[in-house]
Amino acid sequence: MGFTHPTEPPGGGPTRFSRDRPWRVIGMLSGTSLDAVDAAVAEFAFDGPDLLLRPAGLHTEPYPAELRDELAACLPPAATTFGQVCRLDTRLGQFFGRVAARANDGLARGRADLVASHGQTVHHWVADGRARGTLQLGAAAWIAEATGLPVVSDLRTRDIARGGQGAPLAATLDALLLLTGTDGTGRGALNLGGIANITVRDAAGGIVAYDIGPANALIDAVAAEASGGAERMDTGGARAARGTVDPGLLALLLAEPYYRLPPPKSTGKELFHAEYLADLLRRLGRRPADDDLAATVTELTARLVGAACRAHGLTELVVSGGGVRNPVLMDRVRALAAPAHVVPVERFGLPAQAKEAYLFALLGFLTAHGLAGSVPSATGAAAPALLGSLTPGAGPLVLPRPRTAPPRRLRVVP
């Protein structure tokens, strides 16, 4: 059987699939940049020990200005109240629900089977190098009401409950798609979101993944402050291109203790936010020009990536995430990652902007089929975990018979 539903005519391509009915899954998230909600539709089918993924498209909707401002006002280091958190959980859930419904109608022809929603991270609690808890808002019941579909949510907590960091979950997709067998030797997978994370294989062949440090988080903070909030990001790297790296500030940035912690480790805007940068500027005793600030924090991310490539002896770096749209950042990443060759994730069949949304579609699919979605060597957990909580849709929750073995690899089918 091809990637078809029972009511559709069978496909005639050369790839053969198992007799299990393919599933259409909507994977959703909003990243630390707080710019939009992404909803990717993926079709999955088992092919013996392999799992096949056919990307069916990405639907992105920017946050309404009022909702984004309300969200930004509650994030660290700002104080908040339970009332604000409650309202945000509802309003985010309602917005995620509308986006999911439109993705189902526009990309899945109204035939999606499942939604997997990461939601919006508002706090990732790390103390003494260990993740203690994590909170993503966007109540799943609102998504289920808007779509009539079952929803997998709260995808990080179970891994933390088993002693893991709950991040980066991208290691699951990276291990199955990019780092399989000898083909993955010397290759690393880098995602440049608000935070930069990397997945590699160690000398023994095990999967190692961790948050490197800030990517867009500090760049966005500089752009927002320099523009009085009018700019959400350094579009096209324009500010960094006009600016000059400040060596004194860069040295202070690189002295951050987090960078010397061994993996597994995770971080977020709880550490890397606008006030973090303001504190460093007070220690510096001066404030460089806005464009110089943008150039310096952009250089910071590239330096961190380059150091990770050298530490792991990489020969190839597969890059995804919103940061790939910043040409200044990417030019510096290419220069500092050398001799590792930087390639886009599109070469492996997934759009750079949609990779994380497809990741959560994959995790939701694995959960629905009774399969663990975490990689303990990457997160530090004691054991693999079946991730997330399930919220029923319009009808009774009926799950497929659990699979007994995890997929060996993931293959993307056009």
Write the layout of secondary structure elements.
Blueprint: E1 23-30, E2 36-47, E3 50-62, H1 65-72, H2 82-107, E4 114-127, E5 130-137, H3 140-147, E6 151-153, H4 157-161, H5 170-177, E7 187-192, E8 195-201, E9 207-214, H6 216-226, H7 238-242, H8 247-254, H9 274-284, H10 290-311, E10 316-320, H11 327-337, E11 341-344, H12 355-368, H13 376-379, E12 389-391, E13 409-412
Parallel strand pairs: 1-4, 3-13, 4-6, 7-10, 10-11
Antiparallel strand pairs: 1-2, 2-3, 4-5, 6-12, 7-8, 8-9
Protein name: Anhydro-N-acetylmuramic acid kinase
EC number: 2.7.1.170
GO molecular function: ATP binding; kinase activity; phosphotransferase activity, alcohol group as acceptor
Keywords:
23% strand, 13 strands, Nucleotidyltransferase, domain 5, 13 helices, single chain, globular, 414 residues, disordered N terminus, 2 domains, eight-stranded mixed beta sheet
Sum this structure up briefly.
The protein contains 13 helices and 13 strands.
Mean pLDDT: 92
Q: What gap, in angstroms, lies between the N and C termini?
A: 16 Å
Give the quaternary arrangement of the chains: single chain
Q: How many domain modules?
A: 2
Total beta strand runs: 13
Q: What is the makeup of the main sheet? A: 8 strands, mixed
Shape: globular
What's the CATH class label of the largest domain?
A: Alpha Beta
Secondary-structure arrangement, i.e. CATH architecture of the largest domain: 2-Layer Sandwich
Helix content: 25-40%
What is the succession of H and E elements? EEEHHEEHEHHEEEHHHHHEHEHHEE
According to CATH, the homologous superfamily of the largest domain is ATPase, nucleotide binding domain
Parts with pLDDT < 50 across at least 5 consecutive residues: 1-19
Beta-strand fraction estimate: 15-25%
CATH topology of the largest domain: Nucleotidyltransferase, domain 5
